[in-house]
Amino acid sequence: MKIIPKEKFVISMSPEHEAVETVPSGSTVVFEAYDCFSNKLETTADKFSKVGWDKINPATGPLYVEGANPGDTLKVEILDIEIADQGVMATVPGLGSLKNRINEETTKIIPIRDGKAIFSEHIEIPIDPMIGVIGTAPKEGDIPTGSPGDHGANMDCKKITKGATLYLPVNVAGGMLAMGDAHAVMSDGEVLICGLEIPSKTTVKVTVLEGQEYPLPFLTNDTHLMTIAAADTLDEASVRATENMHAFLEEQVKLSAAEAGMLLSLVGDLKICQIVNPLKTTRMELPRNILEKYNITLK
């Protein structure tokens, strides 16, 4: 099993990056990762402004997967997410949805004990580790890891957890998968500018699927199917995520356009992933048992 150390990272997704490791399709790989602040906020005296944007959202990789060609899909099964014993949060004036209400830089160190984040003497929050940044290289250009897109990256979807499977586009040879920005716990919206940011070690299985049958990025877990979309506004992202799930129902489940729309209005839940990155991300969730009723199996 290959282990990619956290020191091998990128701060953008680009077809120009060189792979730091190469594996065959079907391999299991461990990605060690810094937190989104490059582990630079170690005490409450350390502040976001001292980190530098060149050290924000490092993504370990990229990984070249043999046999992955443009037009294919990279299936990434999240087998495990290990996290450190403490995480960090920060407030920054002028950033996030609370930018007009936050007046000072602060840093809060939050320990993890017995599966809970110890926010204060009164509040303990069950952890649910997830990966904030995970994506492949775009077809062209150099996109910061902090920005989401059709290639994935900083989607900040709290459902990208252990046991989930993420399908990503292969835009360049090898796919060039990179990931980082783990959170011990994060709410939908990520309304400040961060979740509970934490160093991580993520174990994944990567498999190349020929062609792109699903609307990408596409996420599944034991209970739901999810289409994730990024756009300048929440309205645009919401429409894209909904249209993508509608297309899935038409193309894979073979429902008519009318039936697919009706079904989404009855059991499809539109959720906000985050509202603080350069682009906003949303997801449309559909109960996975829909597939069972139509005897459909995902690849």
TrEMBL record:
Coiled-coil regions listed: none
Pfam families attached here?
Answer: FmdA_AmdA (PF03069)
Q: Where does the sequence pass through the membrane?
A: none
Top-rank taxon, per record: Bacteria
| Any one GO molecular-function label of the UniProt entry | hydrolase activity, acting on carbon-nitrogen (but not peptide) bonds, in linear amides
What name appears for this protein in its UniProt entry? Answer: Acetamidase/formamidase family protein
What's the source species for this entry? Ornithinibacillus sp. 4-3
The taxonomic lineage of its organism, from the top, reads: Bacteria, Bacillati, Bacillota, Bacilli, Bacillales
